[in-house]
Design goal:
mainly alpha; Arc Repressor Mutant, subunit A; two-stranded antiparallel ribbon; 5 helices; about 65% helix; globular
């Protein structure tokens, strides 16, 4: 599955997540992601733009409608992961 390959690459999913509610400049996106090298960020931006998940505009990088649909699809996974993390702390 090409999508899982793309999202499984270092920082790809984090970049998508950081853009879920806003548009960010390159520097703001790098700051939001934390310890991300500019080289890796440039590579991921290129890959995500090529895949039609993100774009760039006057206010910076953001998600396309396809990218926003992806985030909507991932929201249930966030809930599941929180439940899973709680179960690991109990056991």
């Amino acid at each position: 599955m090409a999508l899982l390959d793309l999202l499984g690459r270092r920082w790809a999913l984090r970049i998508v997540w950081e853009l879920r509610d806003t548009r960010l400049t390159f520097r703001a996106l790098a700051d939001a992601c934390g310890k991300l090298s500019p080289t890796v960020l440039n590579t991921r931006i290129h890959e995500l733009r090529e895949a039609g998940i993100m774009d760039d505009g006057p206010e910076g990088y953001g998600l396309t409608s396809l990218g926003r649909d992806l985030v909507t699809s991932l929201v249930p996974l966030v809930g599941w992961s929180e439940k899973w993390a709680r179960s690991l702390r109990v056991g």
